[in-house]
């Protein structure tokens, strides 16, 4: 929240501070669902479809060893599974289990609600402007679709489990 003595915030500070704000919401929602932030990200990415390990690493921007550990831990919790890649017998794809799909939907829905709440003090027009401007920044910087818009495979249940 802006205090009167904070003064105007420049673009760099605004973006960095807003990323901290969103990350805090993400982490809190994850904790309440028994997930780490990275596991929450993994589940949200997999809501759209199964991914190959190399594609998943590129999307989540994780090194191969970090991704393998993340998938191992999430698989042990029964939330994802590895399956053979039908196009490459040497590769595997990662997909949500039915339990993982249900948890992903719950986590996604709650996280969306909390993030939407962050802008509750803005008018509908200002919210639209903010979304349009941030959307342009995301698209121009080719940020992977690590979190979908509601209805694009998120809480609609379009997942691989």
Describe the structure concisely for a colleague.
The protein is mostly helical. It has helices at residues 11-32, 37-46, 53-60, 64-76, 98-117, 124-140; strands spanning 51-52, 80-85, 88-96. Helix 1 packs across helix 5 (98-117).
Distance between the termini: 39 Å
Going across the biggest sheet, name each strand in turn: 1-3-2
Describe the sheet with the most strands: 3 strands, antiparallel
The dominant shape is elongated
C-alpha Rg (nearest Å): 17 Å
Number of helices: 6
Helix content, binned percent? 55-70%
Low-confidence stretches: 154-161
Mean pLDDT figure: 87
Broad structural category = mainly alpha
What does this protein structure show overall?
The protein is mainly α and 161 residues long. Helices cover 56% and strands 11% of the residues. It has a three-stranded antiparallel β-sheet. The longest helix has 22 residues, at 11-32. The protein starts with 10 loop residues before the first helix and ends in a 21-residue tail after the last helix. The relative contact order is 0.16. Residues 154-161 have low confidence and may be disordered.
């Amino acid at each position: 929240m802006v205090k009167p003595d904070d003064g105007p915030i420049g673009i760099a500070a605004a973006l960095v501070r807003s990323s901290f704000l969103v990350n805090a919401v993400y982490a809190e929602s994850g904790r309440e669902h028994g997930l780490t932030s990275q596991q929450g990200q993994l589940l949200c990415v997999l809501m759209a479809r199964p991914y190959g390990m190399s594609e998943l690493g590129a999307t989540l921007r994780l090194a191969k060893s970090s991704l393998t550990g993340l998938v191992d831990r999430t698989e042990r919790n029964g939330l994802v599974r590895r399956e053979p890649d039908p196009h490459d017998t040497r590769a595997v794809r990662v997909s949500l289990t039915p339990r993982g799909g249900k948890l992903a939907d719950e986590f996604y829905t709650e996280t969306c609600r909390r993030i939407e709440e962050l802008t509750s003090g803005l008018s509908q027009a200002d919210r639209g402007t903010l979304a349009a401007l941030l959307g342009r920044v995301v698209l121009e910087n080719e940020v992977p679709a690590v979190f979908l818009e509601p209805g694009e495979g998120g809480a609609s249940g379009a997942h691989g489990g």
